[in-house]
Amino acid sequence: MPQIELHAIKKKYGAVTVVEDLNLSMADNEFTVLVGPSGCGKSTILRMIAGLEELTAGEILIDDKPVSHLEPKDRDIAMVFQDYALYPHMNVARNMSFALRLAHYPKAKIDARVKAVADMLGIETLLSRKPAQLSGGQRQRVAMGRALVRDASTFLFDEPLSNLDAKLRTQMRAELALMRRRLEKNMIYVTHDQVEAMTLGDRIVVLKGGDIQQQGTAEALFKTPVNKFVAGFLGSPPMNFIDGSLTEADGQLSVTGEAFSFPLPEATRERLNGRSSRAVIVGIRPSAFSIKADEADGVGIELPVVLPEYIGSQSIIVSRLGGQQIQIEVSSDTPLRPDDHLTFTLDPSSIYLFDPQTEATL
């Protein structure tokens, strides 16, 4: 498996810059997920790696060899597209074997490879059908199978599950995770869905406006986001953001705002390095609130139930804090009615602080 390196790559369409001086290294046998909102440049990066888009500047290296001048067919890369891109007049077997037939592989080798991949993907009974006779999930499996039969060193996935309904997307996500364990290949996966990113990736690269905001494991990005964008992008429901300010009284550093005051732990004081009496953005994840059990568990706060949303094993409470709307995640067993007031406990160590100007984590 090769190591893939992007050195100061840039992509411009006329006067519009989509990717600006991006540097990224992807290790052997790594599942790398590029995640971000629409228009952040993630699909463009993938297409540049595949050779489907020309670089405006920079270089792509595979095993220390420049490949930016090579045709897509010479890069040993297979790609799975968002729209499946299956040939409607060919059956599943011929769709899957198309690249091998173009390369003049022996028929016996083609048949063996197609059968092995079809068995792995659970589509062995569909080989004689045409795409119009398949469901969306089956078509996606065929599209993956067409890439897998090539046995390329690197597989690129461009939002392959976005056209599926919620149930199929969950099922295919699990199958992708299992397939990744069986195949020792480099995989680069593009998605705007943070759940896909967090469940699939060995490493997640969060993009915004063509720039890398942060990269690392799902746990590292969730627990230690470097800025407000990463903190708000990863996690469902997303993190709550409230305007506040740092205050200090009697040796206790607190963050205060309209109708709230939360003492901050000593570790936060040390991290802030003496900075106080300044405006901040307060970040609190919906799961950080819990129904109050004991004063010693944290800070007690009473909040209104503006709107309860039952979603199965959990309920989401739309509430208000500091004059701003927030979301709170609780067990669905909690009795909820609009206009109720509930008392919650908040662990001060679960509070995030961000600079209002730079949005960097403090």
Amount of beta strand = 25-35%
Whole-number radius of gyration?
A: 25 Å
**What is the mean pLDDT?**
88
- The tally of structural domains comes to 2
Distance linking N and C termini: 39 Å
CATH topology of the largest domain: Rossmann fold
CATH superfamily of the largest domain: P-loop containing nucleotide triphosphate hydrolases
- State the shape: globular
The number of strands is 21
Main sheet strand line-up? 6-7-8-3-9-10
Instruction: Give the helix/strand class.
Output: alpha+beta
Helix percent band: 25-40%
Task: Explain briefly what this protein structure is.
The chain has nine helices and 21 strands. It has 362 residues and is an alpha+beta fold.
Explain what this protein looks like in three dimensions.
This protein has two domains: 230 residues, P-loop containing nucleotide triphosphate hydrolases (Rossmann fold), CATH 3.40.50.300; 115 residues, Beta Barrel (OB fold (Dihydrolipoamide Acetyltransferase, E2P)). The chain is 25% helix and 35% strand. It contains nine helices and 21 strands. The protein is globular.
